[in-house]
Specification:
alpha/beta, eight-stranded parallel beta sheet, 11 helices, globular
């Protein structure tokens, strides 16, 4: 069975409150050997770290752009303090989830940008990669990355071919997950099929971005149907990507593992503690 890495999973989300341990067990039974857990808010740092340690997973620290309205003005400094405090923790692999979101209404662009730039600077200062939230914001993210050079993962990438190559040229890997499984996602599927294999990592963004076989309409959700995504779905998502690219799942798993370690170097020892 191929060994997969879910490079983006919000295991601390309230959707997993009732069966979090079982979610991890199902992921491992499906062949997902590692999960990367990005934070969304400073108040979540400590419990997220404890969760990662309790299940021998990896984690990242940062303030998500959608949480900037409720974040404290001092949270950029608090991130620096946390990175200093846990700088020798081998399970701390990145700064994230950070970025910009110009899709959701009510998010102040200037405040988002201040948090994004401050967190990029923290990642640079501590020598860590970043996990980026990219939603209608690729060009603005790239502008700052050219000024503050760090590498990492552009999570849930859904931009243009030109934007994809701009991230790749800056040393980023691009995250693909459940959205790619929809037949109507023509541009995204084209990117997944045609971008260089060494630029791609796999993710679920669980509990969000369910693949097509878990998708529920608004009416179905109102009637009680669940559409929760979870990391055990990653191998099936990966098989769809392998079919798009015309390669064996085993080859895709090996490539995505190498890509994940290239993007997040601290993952390497976690995946192979003996070597």
């Amino acid at each position: 069975m191929p060994s997969w890495i879910d490079t983006h999973c919000h295991l601390d989300a309230p959707e997993f409150e009732g069966d979090r341990d079982a979610v991890v067990e199902r992921a491992r039974a499906a062949g997902v050997g590692m999960l990367v857990l990005p934070a969304v808010l400073t108040a979540h740092f400590e419990p997220l770290r404890e969760l990662a340690h309790s299940h021998e997973l990896a984690y990242a620290l940062g303030t998500h752009p959608m949480y900037t309205p409720q974040a404290d003005d001092g949270d950029i400094e608090a991130l620096g303090a946390a990175l200093q405090r846990w700088r020798d923790d081998p399970r701390l692999v990145a700064v994230g989830e950070i970025g910009l979101d110009f899709f959701v209404d009510g998010l102040e662009p200037a405040r988002q940008t201040r948090f994004y730039v401050g967190q990029l600077e923290a990642a640079r200062d501590f020598g860590l990669p970043v996990i980026l939230h990219v939603r209608r914001s690729a060009d603005q993210l790239l502008k700052q990355l050219r000024r503050i050079p760090v590498c990492g993962i552009a999570h849930a990438f859904n931009g243009s071919v030109q934007q994809a190559h701009a991230f790749i040229d800056l040393g980023f890997k691009l995250g693909f997950g459940g959205a790619m499984t929809f037949d109507r996602a023509l541009q995204l599927r084209r990117l997944a099929a045609e971008l260089p294999l060494d630029a791609i990592v796999l993710e679920t963004d669980a509990p969000d971005i369910p693949p097509h076989w878990l998708y529920r309409t608004a009416g179905e959700r109102a009637a009680g149907a669940r559409s929760r995504n979870e990391p055990a779905e990653l191998p099936r998502i990966a098989h769809e990507l392998a079919a798009l690219r015309g390669i064996a799942p085993e080859a895709l798993a090996a490539a995505c593992r190498a890509n994940a370690v290239a993007a997040l170097p601290r993952l390497g020892p976690l995946l192979d503690p003996a070597g």
